[in-house]
Write a structure and sequence with these properties.
Organism: Streptomyces viridochromogenes
Pfam families: DUF6192 (PF19691)
Distance between the termini: 91 Å
Protein name: RacO protein
Number of strands: 2
Number of helices: 16
InterPro entries: DUF6192
Largest sheet: 2 strands, antiparallel
Strand content: under 5%
Helix content: over 70%
Length: about 325
């Protein structure tokens, strides 16, 4: 049984190809004729030529297009292609479309040689081969890079790009191939919106393993602690400004703060009174003495701070005390 191509036999298909090649050749001659006549009406002028030349050229070509029943862009493109291909350089058997694409090659000698030399392994130029030659997006991408370029071209609209990205990232095998660096970059981009970032961070910190690793970062841990303190401060300010029982609570808290301070001092004195006598005959090493002296210095500075706060009401921490406390 003879092989079939579509609904026709191989023999009939070859007849159709031969017939249509003749039609394409006729169309190419026709397109070049349109371009040549458009050039006759409006020759290509050198850059910086006649003032307002572009406007007069457009007027002339639009009138010509209307008079022959074609679009302005068709006549304009035919004129440009004809200007790039002198008659002696036009190749029989190569369509006008191929000539028009290869016309993008700037160097004349390179352009004239290219149209005569199809890609290796090809008997003739195809539209996609010509587009590859000049760096255009092909209609039927073959290589991974061509497919990537085609996707980028189709996804120029932001809404389309967002939908495509979402669909791709839902495929585990695709997400698995994205590098860690690019995943981090993508997450950062997706979480530029503060509401999205807050939701994502909350969800992630609910996972114990992630929360544990995140708190291993000093900056992250500091920011979390700072946020907790700031949230408490804001809640307290809101309570102080809006609650009718705030004055009574503040009085109770002052009493509690006094009791907390006295309790802390008493605990320190009691602990020291219990521990120091037990050190009789204990010989401390140099490292041990250094550690004890450093902590005594912290305690002494802290006690001075307590006295100042009680006597003056000033609770600011000076630089030296801040350094001592930070080393704790």
């Amino acid at each position: 049984m003879p092989s079939m191509i579509g609904s026709v036999s191989q023999t009939r298909y070859e007849q159709i190809v031969a017939e249509l090649r003749e039609v394409v050749e006729q169309q190419s001659r026709g397109s070049f004729t349109i371009g040549d006549r458009a050039l006759e009406v409006e020759p290509v002028r050198p850059s910086g030529g006649v003032p307002d030349a572009e406007w007069t050229i457009k007027q002339s070509l639009m009138r010509l297009a209307e008079d022959i029943g074609l679009t302005f862009s068709t006549v304009k493109n035919a004129r440009w292609a004809a200007s790039r291909w002198p008659k002696e350089q036009r190749q029989t058997g190569v369509s006008f479309s191929i000539h028009r694409i290869l016309a993008r090659i700037e160097d004349d000698e390179e352009r004239f040689a290219a149209v005569k030399t199809p890609p290796e392994g090809r008997p003739r130029w195809t539209a996609d081969d010509a587009k590859r030659r000049v760096g255009w997006t092909v209609d039927s991408p073959e290589t991974p890079q061509e497919k990537i370029t085609a996707i980028h071209h189709l996804a120029q609209d932001e809404e389309v790009a967002a939908t495509v990205t979402t669909d791709f990232l839902k495929r585990p095998q695709v997400a698995a191939k994205v590098s860690t660096e690019n995943k981090v970059r993508a997450v950062e981009e997706f979480t530029r919106d503060e509401k999205v970032a807050a939701t994502a961070a909350t969800s992630l910190l609910r996972r114990p393993d992630i929360a544990f690793k995140a708190m291993g970062d000093d900056t992250a841990r500091y920011q979390v602690n700072h946020a907790q303190n700031e949230r408490s401060r804001q809640a307290r300010e809101d309570f102080d400004h809006t609650s009718p029982v705030a004055p009574a609570v503040r009085h109770i808290e002052r009493s509690m703060e006094f009791l907390d301070l006295v309790t802390a001092l008493h605990s320190f004195v009691a602990a020291a009174g219990r521990i120091v006598p037990s050190l009789r005959n204990h010989v401390f090493g140099d490292d041990e003495r250094t550690i004890v002296h450093e902590n005594v210095a912290r305690c002494r500075a802290t006690l001075d701070w307590v006295e100042t706060a009680v006597d003056t009401g000033k609770v600011d921490v000076d630089d030296e005390l801040a350094r001592l406390l930070k080393d704790e």
